[in-house]
């Protein structure tokens, strides 16, 4: 009995004695492949998304404790064309997703979702990145408790636990540790500590923070002005919807 190349669903044969078997397998394959989120555990900083794993569906959530940024190779020699796949990263680490054919590498941050198109010849292409990134820059030295940034959220998005403030930089380090306060409509939802050795530590009020389009987001300077720190860059990371 011949199977389909991707989900290994058996074809219905003209002389089949039990026609319900491949028909049922077809129904189950469609149900599993299209609707169920397959969980894949990553335990190290390198991972190969093999043909066997790919055959289980098109909607994957990656979990586990890699212990660092993961080099993620999509597919292997002989992998069939897949059309699109949906990937969700729940590992707590960044996944650098590439194809066995080489080409573009896509950064899938923790808590984020990405839709990619894959074919065996050309590798990966981005269909949709559900991440949202809001960049903030403050020029110079802020005063104590200064409202440095004030914007209206452009769309609905969720900040997964631990995401905001992972991307931050200051032009000149502070003399002592300082903390920036993040607020939504006047209520604090997180803070970012910047240390005198350029470490960036994000603390969030809950596991995930939902931001609604038109919410007012503000960033306030530390309560004690640092005489040296200046030129602050912060990128807020979230997932649309």
Tally of discrete structural domains: 2
User: CATH class of the largest domain, please?
Assistant: Mainly Beta
Individual helix count: 2
Radius of gyration over all CA atoms, rounded: 23 Å
Summarize the structure.
The chain has 241 residues and is mainly β. Helix content is 8%, strand content 47%.
Write a concise keyword list for the protein shown above:
241 residues, mainly beta, Jelly Rolls, 2 domains, 5-stranded mixed sheet, 5-stranded antiparallel sheet, 19 strands, 8% helix, elongated
Task: Describe this structure as you would to a colleague.
The relative contact order is 0.14. The chain has two domains: 37-129, Sandwich (Jelly Rolls), CATH 2.60.120; 132-240, Jelly Rolls, CATH 2.60.120. The longest helix has 16 residues, at 20-35. A hairpin with a 5-residue loop joins β15 (187-194) and β16 (200-204). It has helices at residues 20-35, 51-54, and strands at residues 38-42, 46-49, 59-64, 70-74, 83-89, 95-99, 106-108, 113-119, 123-129, 131-138, 147-152, 157-160, 167-172, 178-184, 187-194, 200-204, 208-211, 216-220, 230-240. The strands form four sheets. Strands 1-3-5-8-9 form a five-stranded mixed β-sheet. Strands 10, 12, 13, 17 and 19 form a five-stranded antiparallel β-sheet that branches. The radius of gyration is 23 Å and the shape is elongated. It has 241 residues and is mainly beta.
Outline the fold blueprint:
Layout: H1 20-35, E1 38-42, E2 46-49, H2 51-54, E3 59-64, E4 70-74, E5 83-89, E6 95-99, E7 106-108, E8 113-119, E9 123-129, E10 131-138, E11 147-152, E12 157-160, E13 167-172, E14 178-184, E15 187-194, E16 200-204, E17 208-211, E18 216-220, E19 230-240
Parallel strand pairs: 1-3, 2-4, 3-5, 4-6
Antiparallel strand pairs: 5-8, 6-7, 8-9, 10-19, 11-18, 12-17, 12-19, 13-19, 14-15, 14-18, 15-16
């Amino acid at each position: 009995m011949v199977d389909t190349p991707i989900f290994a669903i058996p074809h219905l044969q003209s002389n089949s004695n039990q026609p319900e078997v491949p028909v049922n397998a077809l129904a189950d394959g469609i149900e599993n492949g299209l609707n169920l989120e397959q969980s894949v555990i990553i335990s190290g900083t390198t991972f190969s998304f093999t043909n066997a794993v790919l055959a289980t569906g098109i909607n994957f959530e990656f979990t586990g404790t890699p212990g660092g940024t993961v080099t993620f190779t999509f597919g292997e020699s002989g992998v069939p064309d897949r059309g699109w796949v949906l990937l969700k990263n729940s590992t707590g680490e960044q996944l650098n997703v590439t194809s066995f054919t080489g080409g573009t590498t896509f950064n899938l941050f923790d808590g984020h979702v990405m839709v990619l198109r894959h074919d065996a010849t050309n590798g990966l292409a981005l269909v949709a990145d559900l991440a949202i990134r809001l960049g903030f820059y403050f020029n110079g030295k802020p005063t104590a408790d200064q409202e440095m940034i004030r914007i209206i959220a452009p769309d609905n998005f969720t900040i997964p636990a631990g995401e905001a403030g992972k991307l931050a930089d200051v032009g000149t380090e502070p003399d002592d540790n300082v903390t920036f306060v993040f607020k939504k409509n006047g209520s604090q939802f997180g803070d970012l500590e910047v240390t005198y050795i350029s470490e960036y530590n994000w603390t969030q009020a809950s596991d995930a923070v939902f931001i609604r389009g038109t919410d007012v987001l503000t960033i306030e300077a530390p309560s004690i002005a640092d005489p040296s720190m200046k030129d602050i860059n912060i990128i807020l990371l979230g997932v649309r919807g």
